[in-house]
Amino acid sequence: MLAVGAVVSDTGIRAGEMCARTIEDLSPTLEELRAVRRPQGRSESEACTELLALSGLSRAALKRWLPERQQLLERVGGTATALWVSLHGNHHVGKAVPAGTPLMPDAEKAAVLLDDVAARGRTLAELRRAGEEGGTAELQGRIAVRQAVRDAWAEGIEHTVQLSTLAHAGLADTVSLAAGGWEPVLLDVIDRGQGRGRPTKAAAAE
Q1: Residue 43 — very low, low, confident or very high, per pLDDT cuts 50/70/90?
Q2: Residue among 112, 104, 121 nearest 164 (CA)
Q3: Mean per-residue pLDDT, 182-192
Q4: Whose CA is closest to 9, among 50, 65, 57?
Q5: Which of 35, 44, 156, 175 is 20 to 30 A from 14, comparing alpha carbons?
Q6: CA atoms of 125 and 203, how far apart (whole Å)
């Protein structure tokens, strides 16, 4: 925890970005961490790589963590390159996972879940544009979006990534997102954290 906390404090790295780091992302001297940053609202092709300085505290903590990490991997015969792995066994999607499991969602599964969020989001957006708000089909569309969003969240996909996906699907304003299950107060917190505001329903429709 000291290593995780120190690195986060030094770099300001987000949870998904942190979990995706591998030992290859550590500089040979442990003085820097390489991270792929995907700012909110940008496409995958616009991701950028940053070299983030690590403090003496982070370096000391990493020197203690890396041998411990190796012992955890040896227990399961693993050769994973993930920088951060679990300390204890746990359960994921009904299956037991041992200590030493990488702390990141399955990339292929995450892509499938985001595709589902996008598809269900488009369906709901089309129904609302067609004036079907409150109808049976629209209500079913709301339920479908909520379930897709919940599944993606449970897999560890960040709120900002999901919101960007839904915005491209046509659900960009607070009212439309609320129909898809997002609490407005949470949306406000996320927007404030990103230093921006969410468009009104009228502005999103223009």
Answers
A1: very low
A2: 121
A3: 88
A4: 57
A5: 175
A6: 15
Place of tokens 């983030």: 52
Record the pTM: 0.51
C-alpha 77/C-alpha 53 separation (Å) is: 32
- Please give the average per-residue pLDDT across 13-20, as a whole number: 81
> Is 14 or 194 the better-scoring residue by pLDDT?
14
Give the model's pLDDT for residue 177: 95
Round to whole Å and give the CA distance between 200 and 172: 9
